[in-house]
């Protein structure tokens, strides 16, 4: 493939990385368990959209700024952490979600909000940006005249396989917990637990460094 070395190796390595549990996996599982299949799928698509943004940042060199500037890295990191904590707190205190039914299609505004939250949590994670600029260049020919097209190709490939895996996770996790959510009392505690998990992810993000 033009400008790309060992694409098959990249594809295999990318799939293995997608299968490795991380913050995105936990986020999607939490959304799927608490709010059902549609919320999980929308979250997976939102995470994928965030990865596309990081791909473009990496392709055009903007991610280099994040990796080199402590100030920019810290600003993005804390914005992402605050946003995750905010989502978690909303899940804990939003009593209206106790009436959720797994087969009910989310209203348009709610769907947009779920998708937006997932996209922003991914974009506001500087570790994702640093991963893209560390991992993708290993498979780009150093002598190729422009790295933009290879960067975008590799990034979209990684995003596509990752999004497929996340959708599978959303479908299975939402189905497994379907009966539990029908129990009003258990649904209450599931919602609180998933909110607490997102708060924990926010705190974890706030404590990361650039290493």
What can you see in these coordinates?
With 211 residues, this protein is an all-alpha fold. The protein has one domain (23-207). Helices cover 78% and strands 0% of the residues. The chain has ten helices and no strands. The protein has helices at 7-19, 23-35, 37-59, 62-68, 70-93, 108-123, 126-135, 148-176, 178-182, 184-207. Helix 2 (23-35) packs antiparallel against helix 3 (37-59), helix 3 (37-59) crosses helix 6 (108-123) and helix 3 packs across helix 7.
**Which range does the strand content fall in?**
under 5%
Put simply, the count of helices is 10
Overall pLDDT score: 79
Per the principal axes of the C-alpha atoms, what is the gross shape?
A: globular
Instruction: Give the domain tally.
Output: 1
| Unreliable residue stretches | 97-106
- Radius of gyration, CA atoms, in whole angstroms: 18 Å
CA(first)-CA(last) distance: 32 Å
- Helical coverage, percent range: over 70%
Number of strands: 0
Q: What is the helix/strand order?
A: HHHHHHHHHH
Determine the structural class based on helices, strands and strand pairing.
mainly alpha
Main pleated sheet: none
